[in-house]
UniProtKB/TrEMBL annotation:
The lineage of its organism: Eukaryota, Fungi, Dikarya, Ascomycota, Pezizomycotina. Residues 100-155 form the DNA/RNA-binding domain. InterPro entries: DNA/RNA-bd_Est1-type (IPR018834), Est1/Ebs1-like (IPR045153), TPR-like_helical_dom_sf (IPR011990). It comes from Zasmidium cellare ATCC 36951. One of its GO terms (molecular function) is telomerase RNA binding. GO terms for cellular component: telomerase holoenzyme complex. Transmembrane segments: none annotated. This is DNA/RNA-binding domain-containing protein.
Amino acid sequence: ATQHPSATQALRGLPTKYSIPARMWKHGIHKFLEVLRHRRPHSQDYMVAFIYLAYQMMALLLETVPTFTDTWIECLGDLARYRMAIEEEKEVHATWGGVAARWYTMASDLHPAIGRLYHHLGILERPSLRKFCLYAKSLSCVIPFPNARDSLSTLCGPIVQDENTIQSSSHSVEARIVTYHALVYSKAEQKLIDTVGNDALQLLNQQLPRLRDIGAYLAVTNIAAIFELGSPTNVLYQQYAMAISRAMQYSRPSMTPGGLADLESQFQPALTNGSPTPSLVSTTSFWENTFALALKNYTSVEDILPYVHVMLVSLHSLDSLRTGLSIDQTENHAIDALNVGRLAWDALAEFLNTLVRSQPISAWILECARQRAFPVPERKEDMKPLSEDFLMRGLIWAQFYFVSEWFDGQTEDDGRSIESDNTHKARVERVLWL
């Protein structure tokens, strides 16, 4: 009735005023699903039937009540995830997992800053670096999802439970990297953390072509680790939060200067912390050494380009942070703690020269660099984000990297992960621009 064409404005506003869609999900669907779930396997058939009924209803609401599209999409993802969770047949289980991922991806495209959606995507993944990365991203977004720490604990627990399980990852670079970050998150002994970290670097050196598949996830995970997964006491995280709060002040004049001062005052205690913790020193060193290893020992440019791109975006954001907050030398401890000066700049310069020899810098890229303008192609059909752009989107350190229209017109099944010659060319141009 509230959405009928003849409904008054006051009647149309009732669902928003009383949060009716969210309450309908919570009390009309979710609670009953939980009752049925706790009574499985006897309630299996009833639960499947109810999921299908609720799914059809939500799909109908998605078509007929577009005002609450965001809510319906996330509810459809949740229903698909429930259906996946209770399915024992592998093929059907995988199918419903894909359906849930499709809805959550669509939701995250609409609201990229909300960490909760990446947490839900992480739940759908098997234990892997991608899963850890999505959990880490949900904690490092502009709007973090603190409950992701519980899911991280569930993921990391079996990985680090004893010496045998820790050693079982010693042959796979991806597994060893996940083990390293799991040990850091679990606050294991520092000696063990450093040993596993060195093992991961040695394996990465031997299996460097794997960076083509996992490079972007590795870079985002390493960066999340130096933010201590969005810890409220992390100095760097708080400085980015301050930069975003100041940007919000300029974009929303209704926020009073006094309110902004109150908001920023929450960050000040963190800015006066002493020396970094041993685990932060370790993750910072791992971040540096991974970058150096990739740049010095690569065999193919294509293997490491996505990883290098993400790393350069993070370094670009540090420079923007320094400028945006007008940080002087006395306040540089957060940025300087990363030992940015110790990064492999010589190796990076040599790598960039190699790129230029294979693909000369165009006049357009040079002009964008001079104007400090994001390189947006003139033709709309050429404006296609890179696969790692979607991974960085919403992260607190990438908040000001993309132009507002960069992701316009993208859909959840637009082949964003498909690589082509044009994709490689665009990635090279972006790296050279940075």
